[in-house]
Amino acid sequence: MHKFDPSKLEKLDSPSRLELFDPEKVLREFGLRQGMTAFDIGTGAGFYLPYLSKAVGESGRVLAFDVQKEAVEYAKRKTQELGLTNVEVLLSSELSLPVEDSVTDFVYMAFVFHELENPVEFMKEVSRASKQGALMCIIDWTKEDRDKGPPKEEVFSEWEMGLMIEEAGLRAARAVKVGNYAFGFYVLKPG
Ligand code: SAM
Prior knowledge:
The protein has helices at about 10, 25-30, 50-55, 70-80, 120-130, 160-165; strands spanning about 35-40, 60-65, 85-90, 105-110, 130-140, 170-180, 180-190.
C-alpha cells in the first residue's frame, strides 16, 4: 500500500476536513477522557492533535507517530505553534513504535490502516504498546464509490479490517459510520 505523498501535507491540515466528521464527538464517543495517555498513529500534518490534546487535558498526554520525517516535522511545528504542551511527536518505523510496553490507554488511527504494509503485524505492535483494556478508534475510508479519498480498491472493507484486528489478538467490537465517507472501528485490547 502506498504512503501519503508528503508534498500534500498542507491539504491534510485544511479546516475543510472537519466536513468528514466532528472529531470532538467521535473521540468522546470512542471513550477518550481527561487524564488518559493517547496515541495518534500516522499523525500526518497533526490535524487531529488539537482535539486529542484538549480531550486528554493537562493531566493526560498525547504521543503522535509517523513514519515520514516530513510529517513529523510538520506536526511538531504545529504542536509548538498551537502551544500543545501535552503532545509529543515521534518518528516511528513501519512495524515499530518507539515506546515501552503497555503505555497507552487509547489509540487513534485515522486514514492510516489502508497504508500499512502489514496490518496484522502492525496491530500486534500497537497491542504491545497498549495497556490491558485500552480502547482504540480506527477510522478509514469506506469501501465504496466516493468523491473524496483513495479509490475503493485501495481500502479495506469493515469485515476485512475486523478480521485483521482479531488476528492480531485484539477485539474488534463493532464498526460505525462516521460521517458520509468513513467508518470507525471500536477496538479493545482484552484485559
Ligand atoms: N491521520 C492523519 C489525518 O487523518 O489527518 C494523517 C492521514 S495520512 C492519509 C496517513 C499517514 O499515516 C501518513 O502521514 C503516513 O506517513 C502515515 N503512516 C503510514 N504507515 C504508517 C505506519 N506504519 N506507522 C506510522 N505512520 C504511518
